[in-house]
Amino acid sequence: xxxxxxxxxxxxxxxxxxxxxxxxxxxxxxxxxxxxxxxxxxxxxxxxxxxxxxxxxxxxxxxxxxxxxxxxxxxxxxxxxxxxxxxxxxxxxxxxxxxxxxxxxxxxxxxxxxxxxxxxxxxxxxxxxxxxxxxxxxxxxxxxxxxxxxxxxxxxxxxxxxxxxxxxxxxxxxxxxxxxxxxxxxxxxxxxxxxxxxxx
Length: 200
Hints:
By secondary structure, the protein is mostly helical. It is built from nine helices and three strands, in the order βαββαααααααα. α5 (108-118) crosses α6 and α7 packs parallel to α9. It is elongated.
């Protein structure tokens, strides 16, 4: 399942980059509708932009760029959102709303110190990440909950379908209805698996 919506890579300018993580992905729009998380208006059809933070580039680890690029662009968020936009029979809220699933009482400094001691990221990236978590406290557990649920659904489908399981088809089934709350995604995968099994 691929999309015809193009993508572009853009630098984040210096004033914006100092306060942001290493990259982000404002969604594109086929129709010109305001389409991104940051509220930047689009007046005509626009590609999705993978914004690469080039502020203090020497301090940013090169080893993280491959995973970040794949996560934000293709096969990541650009593909996910573009596929949803192209679905003609999908309600608008399923094309545009963000379900992040698809703090332990530490101080900010304790969290920064923990990251510094346990990751290879630099101090500026860590401070930006901790500040993001403080502002959006549900985002980190939501990502993990979504990952665990998708892994659970994949294991369920692999077990139920055995040698008939195709990872590419599973990925299509996860993406084919746009963004869903996890209980609806689970029902969708269960229905797909049931349809692949011989009648009892």
